[in-house]
User: Fold this.
Amino acid sequence: MDQRALKIMRIKQLVSTNALVIALFAIYLALLSAFEVRMSQMFFVLGAIVFAQTLLRWISRKSTKSVIPFFEQVAIYEKQKMGNEWRKQYNTGLICNFFLSGIFLLQAFWSRGSTDIAIQMELRFMLLLALCLVIMINIALCIHIRKVDRSKLQSDFKGYTLKTNIIGAVVGLVVAFAMFVGITFYVLTLS
Assistant:
């Protein structure tokens, strides 16, 4: 693939990923504000969606097919470029998504008798959360794109999946701690 076509494909990938994340977050917030959704219902729906999506990906795991055509083009390009490491990354993503859906469904089970409303929205907080989410996704995606596009050989990716998962776990723990401290501080200042 020549550099111009690669750049166009990557720009489309970044723009559409951001558009999808923002649209899904907006739909999520609109649904939560339009309906009184209990915690158990929210977790059950999220768990069912993640499980169904992951199950479909698992069934067609040899395929790079996508609903959005240029995501399929990205998957084909990365699969050719990364070789076996692409398969490892794909399988790791499936395992993590199955685990996440299990956590959501377990939360739904644990909170089934609760009548608590899922989220009572504070618009500033939700916008800040959406902004942080988009920034983190963009940073991770740009780092991945840079690594894939600059690598010349499949051997450049040896251990890439393990390394990115470890870095992702550490960054996730740091962000979770920072969010916990920030939310706690925010709630205490409201009182």
In short: Residues 3-190 form one domain.
